[in-house]
């Protein structure tokens, strides 16, 4: 493994453009498709995934939801979550939640969070990245406006993203408790880890 800041591992833009043109799937499922490779996951794949459950053990894969992360450098104007209490237990005890004209009121706590969506565990929609003014399947980038995406929005996949998950313990494979910040994991690392840990990668 290597570090992202190692110059020899930085991709040149022309190489990215070459690979994106060679490997793109635009048109594979017709000109109106907004699902992309999620087309590969159908009823049979979902049934097979469900049949793999043996223990019912749960793994929390979410990132901490607080002001300490996960943003770094405020890329693109993003900020860490801002948590604001709208009502507290103190408000309740001090009677600040009493409804006018009523002797009793419900007591409660309430809060709000302001954050860019990159602050939490999430999937990027096919409308997230553009290439030469186009997004997935050749749709115009201008179809993503102030009110969101008219094409390739994430809600188009709301009943599609169920399947087999793959967990690879890269740190254990590398012989450490955890990886240092900035450690890059490339395709060769993933392939070798899967092989060594007996994990089969499928579509």
TrEMBL record:
Transmembrane stretches, start-end:
none
Q: What is this protein called?
A: Cyclase
Task: Provide the family line.
Answer: Belongs to the Cyclase 1 superfamily.
The species is Durusdinium trenchii
> In the record, which residues are listed under signal peptide?
none
For this protein, the record's Pfam families field holds: Cyclase
Annotated InterPro entries: KFase/CYL, KFase_sf
């Amino acid at each position: 493994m290597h570090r992202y800041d190692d110059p020899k591992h930085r991709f040149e833009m022309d190489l990215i453009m070459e690979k994106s043109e060679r490997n793109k799937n635009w048109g594979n499922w017709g000109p109106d498709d907004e699902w992309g490779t999620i087309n590969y996951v159908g009823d049979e794949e979902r049934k097979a995934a469900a049949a793999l459950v043996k223990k019912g053990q749960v793994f929390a894969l979410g990132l901490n939801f607080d002001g300490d992360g996960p943003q770094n450098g405020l890329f693109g104007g993003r900020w860490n979550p801002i948590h604001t209490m709208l009502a507290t237990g103190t408000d309740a005890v001090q009677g600040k939640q009493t409804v006018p004209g009523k002797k009793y009121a419900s007591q409660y706590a309430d809060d709000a969070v302001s954050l860019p969506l990159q602050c939490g565990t999430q999937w990027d929609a096919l409308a997230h990245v553009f290439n030469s003014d186009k997004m997935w399947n050749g749709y115009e980038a201008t179809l993503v406006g102030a009110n969101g995406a008219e094409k390739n929005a994430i809600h188009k996949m709301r009943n599609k993203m169920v399947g087999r998950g793959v967990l690879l313990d890269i740190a254990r494979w590398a012989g450490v408790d955890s990886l240092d910040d900035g450690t890059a994991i490339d395709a060769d690392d993933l392939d070798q880890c899967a092989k060594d840990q007996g994990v089969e990668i499928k579509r």
